[in-house]
Amino acid sequence: MKDDCDAALRPHWDIQRRGGPVLATAVHAGHVMRDELKPYLAISEQDQRREEDPMTGLWSTVGDDAFRNYTSRFQADLNRPRDSAIYLKPEDSWGLQVWKETPPDEMIERSLAVYDAFYDMMATWIEGLIAECGKVLVLDIHSYNHRRDGPHGRHGPQEDNPDIDLGVTTLDRERFGGVLDVFKTALAAQPAQSRELDVRENVRYPDGGHWPEWVFANYGADVATITLEYKKFYMDEWTGTAFLPVIEDLRAGLDVAACAARKELLSCR
To answer: Which domain CATH number covers 21?
Structure first.
């Protein structure tokens, strides 16, 4: 019985180590919740999935190294500060009521233990990559909703919703501006099912997220972080139906951009 309990509390994530300076992460890719938390949930599974970042784990395979998190952000959000990683109030989660009642403290602490394990692991991982490669590029991969008015509502205006929004609020442009330029140019040059991609910077989330901010605060001299926010034109965000040819093209385009950025990164000193 104890082994079963221990297994339930292990982190649900996947790690790829091939060696090289590009680390791709998908911290919101998952949907798993611990069984002990499920009786406390008020949010529907459909609403939960809508706010997660499906398919981003597939795109993380473009990295030399990759991290894919299969745990839902509604259990613990790895992209927020520790004191707000658990969505306890509707204002923490886009007005959604996540819990019927707040889970017991010991359950919250178990969720935060996984959060702590992630950051401890990443410190060791990134420091090892810096020692091995000198400079590192982190691709922080996410997606976002643009049909907030409902399944039959209008799409958000294109001027406010680029196909891919690059979050680079923490990137040292003096040192890594060339990496960003070649990455952005290569990414925008790869169409998705004949759709020319609108790729811009810091449109949707000008304040960034905690994960890239943590990387910058601790390793900013040696690590360039680019957050990618893919608009969910690659799926129906209300039904969850995925458009596989678009997803495949987006992965291929990201692979081209990562290769171009890797070459530029090697010239950074």
So the answer is: 3.40.630.40
